[in-house]
Amino acid sequence: MKIGIDKYFKYALKFKKKFSNAAVSFNKKEFLIIKFNIDDRYYSFGEVCLSPDADPEDIIKILNSILPNIPEQTHDAAEYLKKIEIDDSLRYGLEQPLLYYLLKERKDFFNIIPDPRNINVNVIIDLEDIDEALKRIEKKVIEGYRVIKIKAGREDFDEDLKLLKRVDSLYGDSIVLRLDVNGKWNYHTAVERLSLLKNFNIEYIEDPADNLDDNLRLAKEQGLPVALDQTLPGFNYALDILENYDIKHIVVKPSIRFGIFNTIDLIDYARGQNKQIVISSAFETTIGKSVLTFISSFAPEYTAHGLDVYDMLEASFYDPLPPKNGKLNSIIPHLLKISKKYLIL
């Protein structure tokens, strides 16, 4: 198997309004969309998430320097891409044509390829006005959502608390809450504020403190369910934490953290530890989203993933995989037909 680059271009997803969490805010996401040639037999699309200062030409140079070194045997190629020291967004881009090839020619590579099924998803509520947040939550609950992820970490914690109390009074235990603080608090602030959250129906609190050691300490000492995302340094740390620490959930954005095959391995390892990997979107295009739904299908069916973000985008973005009733259909990526209807190519 040999992979080459046929063509590429820059593409942007624009938001209806600025998206904000405790760490960043932005109104668009940019990608490098790449058409790969596989053995002069297949074409596959992949995407690389671009940082604001990224130069697409520099990225293509890096990819072209790696592609000739990828082993021709598929198993060796997957292991090579899992371990090579590159930015994970580039890893994700390079792994997409390999995944396409495996699903077309080497389905035996996976022990079991999950059948397409409905995947539970959570809705995401960013740092918006409380009344607007409540309207959005009400709409999603009516639509059938039962897991609500709320971005916390406002400058005034009383505002976070006010929203949680309103949600609790309206819905009680009929919904499950996830809080994402994005590492906004230091350890002592986290201890103080987590003590005020113990009576809410919270599945986990994501990155309450601004570093890994303090989050592990909070999980051990405070007895609250802490999930890790941005404060997790790398893949090997994730394996160690799943085995040796009282962390039940790790949130992974494969398009910018770990890539495809490492994430599938992590899901399998977590299952053996009776823990969960929650797949989360970094606002991918249709191309990347199809891969995320495929990865999510390896997780236990009861896991709700953070993939319902596309109603935040401008109406010009057409989503061929829309969620319905709090669920999203998974799809085997090579079956998704990329056309002008989905993405302007």
Automatic annotation (TrEMBL):
Cite a single Pfam family from the UniProt record: MR_MLE_C
Please list the GO terms describing molecular function.
catalytic activity; metal ion binding
- What's in the keyword line of the UniProt record? Metal-binding
Q: Which InterPro entries match?
A: Enolase-like_C_sf (IPR036849), Enolase-like_N (IPR029017), Enolase_C-like (IPR029065), Mandel_Rmase/mucon_lact_enz_CS (IPR018110), Mandelate_racemase_C (IPR013342)
State the source organism's domain of life. Answer: Bacteria
Q: Which GO terms describe its biological process?
A: amino acid catabolic process
UniProt KW Transit peptide keyword: no
Q: Where is the Mandelate racemase/muconate lactonizing enzyme C-terminal domain?
A: 130-225
Q: Does the keyword Metal-binding apply?
A: yes
Q: Which PANTHER family match?
A: O-SUCCINYLBENZOATE SYNTHASE (PTHR48073:SF2), O-SUCCINYLBENZOATE SYNTHASE-RELATED (PTHR48073)
Q: What is this protein called?
A: O-succinylbenzoic acid (OSB) synthetase
Q: Which organism is it from?
A: Melioribacter roseus (strain DSM 23840 / JCM 17771 / VKM B-2668 / P3M-2)
